[in-house]
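yo

u said u wanted the structure for the complex thing, so here. seqs first:
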Amino acid sequence: MTSALFSQLTTLGSSVVLLFGIVLLCRRSLHAYVEAFRWQSLVLSALVIVVGRFGNAPDLYFVGVVFLAIKGIFIPRYLERLAKSVGAESESQPYVNITSSLVIAALLVLSAYVVMRPLVLATQLPTRGGMPLALGLIFVGLFVLISRKKALTQIVGFLVLENGIALLAVLGTFGIPLIVEMGVFLDLLMGFLVMQVFVYHIHGTFESIDVEQLNQLRH
Amino acid sequence: MKYVFAVSQAAFALALAPLVVGFVRWLKARMQNRRSAPPWQPYFELKKLFGKEAVVSENASWLFRAAPYVVFVSTVAVALLVPFLFVAEPFDTVGDLLAVVYLLLLGTFFLALAGLDPGTPFGGMGASREMTVAAIAEPTIAVAIFSVALGAGSTNLGRIVAQTLANPANAISPGHLLAFAALFIVALAETGRLPVDNPATHLELTMIHEAMILEYSGRYLALIEWAAALKLTIFLSLLANLFVPWGVATTIAPLSLSVAAVALLIKFGFLALVIAVVETRVAKLRLFRVPELLGVSFVLALLAVTSSFLLR
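structre next:
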């Protein structure tokens, strides 16, 4: 009974996490991007704690709390501040328009299901229902990264991609060793800070955070 | 005897429909700090409209007069198939969810024809917009309900409800959840509620439903308004009973029926509250962004089908 509940909860949580990734694709303002990412991280950290509770992996509690602190609170707040200071432009003309992005996202998730099908059939893990969804989230994050034009929305795409990897790791292994997990967090934080500096420089040079302008010479 | 119960269930829904619309209006007014007409106001409006003379344009053909009856009758036919209070068996052989989807589309189609018929610019505009919305919304309804049907192994609405009652764990499966979200967005679009169409205004350049029925008056308008209210009730009960079926009676007995009625009213109250909050918080979408919103709901429905198909 508890394992049935466990698998229901993880599948449900994974689909909510994926849902926020897809919601991202139909929004335009940077604020909405950050908001969707914040909610996604909150649900994801709750999911990590659920896996820790049912999967007998107490160190996941700690991971969940750190996750909440970094991705649920710290990074969204910093993104908001960054957006404010560079005069947030909205994602008005992405490379792929919104309706097509949604259809492509659906196809990506379908292909994630197809790719993961042998694995899902072979494994006996109670969390197997959520694994295709996690892979789908990785694909969707990657798609946001390549189809959006503003530096800030691309950062959010990268963070969503990272969330997908974290979700897949938690569902597939019930927690990689704590030291590795911490290393990933540190990496992510450093990466984020470096990207933030880049955004400031892009904005300082081009007076815009549209990456399309990067292929034009200036000065 | 069973047929009597099934027909009286539909009659109950028909009688309840104006109250549902009035209640949503009342809640919405309350939330916006306005004083409101009482929730039962739509009954008076219907009575007034039925008593009035129907004025028909000289240019209108028979289609204009026939359309309100088609719209009303097709919506009532849907009400016969949908489980409101109990799982209706007798009409299961007549129609399933496919019949529901296409009967609803039949009503929409005739309303659009009637909008075009008198040749007014507003009517044509409304009809073209309604068809745009319907073309994306109808497949989403079908796909969303299909994903639930896959879980139950049957396209009969009554069977789906009974199956979910038997396996309560199904109700929080991702397929169910995604399908619920998809159907909710589509329900807002199909019943002409806020992010897509504004039900509180006449004569706005961006109106959809109101533009089509602008030429109608008297009993024709009353029939269309009543059918629209019934359509909202049908969508709410699909949302309430397919996804949260607890309370729906499986046997016809006075006790279980009264429990079902109370449960239905509570669920309707909750959904009406959600609609009122949505309508208070969001602004109307620009028309060319409506397909994006409906695209989201279609993707959700598609994912719902995928996950209920592949995770079985």
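Chain B touches chain A at residues 169, 172-174, 177-178, 181, 291-293, 295-296, 298-300, 302-303, 306-307, 310-311 (CB under 8 Å). DSSP finds eleven helices and no strands in chain B.
cya
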